[in-house]
Structures are given as structure tokens and as C-alpha cells.
Write a structure and sequence with these properties.
The structure is a single chain. Helices cover 34% and strands 23% of the residues. With 203 residues, the chain is an alpha/beta fold. The chain has one domain: von Willebrand factor, type A domain (Rossmann fold), CATH 3.40.50.410. Strands 3, 4, 5, 6, 7, 10 and 11 form a seven-stranded mixed beta sheet that branches. It has a two-stranded antiparallel ribbon with strand order 1-2. A two-stranded antiparallel ribbon has the order 8-9. Helix 3 packs antiparallel against helix 4. It is globular, with a radius of gyration of 17 Å. The protein starts with a helix and ends with a strand.
């Protein structure tokens, strides 16, 4: 049939049929006012102590919940949160079905803001999850309110090196900087620029 012959590059997805076209269609998400187009989204979220100073952690929970719930069940996603160390919602990419959305939302809603900003290892972990996803238009979204400080040390240059090494698939790494001060802007801009991503600072 012409339908079957039109897309010879499609790999069998386990169920041929009417859903195939829809399955590969990218979607546009709005996260904290920034727009990102893709078919899989991997978040790396700051839960350092400064995220509690002006209620940012609560804003983050709201923004993440809204964005995640807007995904179609064809999309895939992952979530990592960091402060001193980092925690991972699921080490593998997951379909954005209602059950997974509910579980990930509950996980993010339970986050508490405390500790340093050890962004590097968390960003590497996020990329490791994204690298396992077979989608064509993956996006990584890293949200932070400052430069990476880990145990009193500024780890910005180490972080840039480690993320570049982990990002061998050259997935766009988009950075979202939510502080009112300018301290972390140049680092977040560099991180995005080195990884084919965009830098965004919500107003």
C-alpha cells in the first residue's frame, strides 16, 4: 500500500497500524515560558537550598507538573533532581502515559530544597538516561538558579567538560536560569551553547 511504502525507514514499533504517523510526530512543550520541540524530554532540576529562598522550588513543582501533563503518551521523558548529590526518578526513559506522569509528578512534588548545587554529575546522569532513548528529537532541559557549587568549590569548568563528554549523541541541552541575579548566566549560556541547546531566563 502507498501508506506502507511512504516511510521505509520506520522500524517496527511492536504494533503497526494507524498510530505510526502520530507516534513520531514531535510536539512543542512550554516549560516556564520557554518553548521546546521534541518527542522526548529529559529534565535535570535544581533542588539546592537557594531554591527555597523565594519559593522557587514551589514554582518548579507547578511548572514541571503542567509541562509533563501536556505531553502526549507517545512522548518519552526522564527526571533527575540535584543538590549535594542527585536522585533519579527512573534510570530508563519512560513513556508519558498517565501512570508514569502521575508517578513522576508525585516524585517531583516530594522534593525538598536543601544543599549545594552539584549540577555536573546530575547532568551527566540525565544524558545517560536520554542516550538510552531511541526517539529522534530528544531534548535535555537543565534548570538551575546559579553556578554549580559543590562542597564549597565552583565546579563550572569541570561540569562543562563532563557534560560534553557524556553528550556523545549531541542531544540539545537547553538551560533555564531562574535567578534574578546574574551570577550563573554565563555558565548556563556556555553549557547550552556547547551542546546545541538554547539558554532561557524567564522574566
Amino acid at each position: 500500500s502507498p501508506e506502507g511504502g511512504r516511510r521505509p525507514l520506520d522500524l517496527p514499533s511492536g504494533g503497526a497500524g494507524d498510530g505510526d504517523d502520530e507516534e513520531d510526530a514531535p510536539e512543542t512543550i512550554n516549560f516556564w515560558g520557554g518553548e521546546y520541540e521534541g518527542d522526548a524530554f529529559f529534565w535535570c532540576l535544581d533542588k539546592s537550598c537557594s531554591m527555597s529562598w523565594n519559593g522557587e522550588i514551589e514554582d518548579l513543582k507547578q511548572e514541571f507538573t503542567q509541562t509533563l501533563n501536556s505531553l502526549s503518551s507517545q512522548a518519552e521523558f526522564g527526571v533527575v533532581a540535584f543538590s549535594e548529590g542527585h536522585s533519579v526518578w527512573n534510570p530508563m526513559p519512560q513513556r508519558a502515559n498517565p501512570a508514569n506522569k502521575g508517578a513522576a509528578t508525585a516524585w517531583v512534588l516530594s522534593l525538598n530544597a536543601a544543599g549545594w548545587t552539584c549540577l555536573g554529575p546530575a547532568a551527566v546522569e540525565t544524558l545517560n538516561i536520554a542516550n538510552q532513548c531511541s526517539k529522534a528529537m530528544k531534548q535535555v532541559l537543565i534548570l538551575s538558579d546559579g553556578e554549580p557549587y559543590c562542597n564549597g568549590t565552583n565546579t563550572a569548568s569541570q561540569c562543562l567538560t563532563d557534560v560534553a563528554a557524556a553528550n556523545w549523541q549531541q542531544i540539545p541541552v537547553n538551560t533555564i536560569y531562574i535567578a534574578s541575579d546574574t551570577g550563573g548566566i554565563s555558565f548556563m549560556q556556555q553549557l547550552a551553547a556547547q551542546n546545541n541547546g538554547t539558554f532561557y531566563q524567564p522574566q
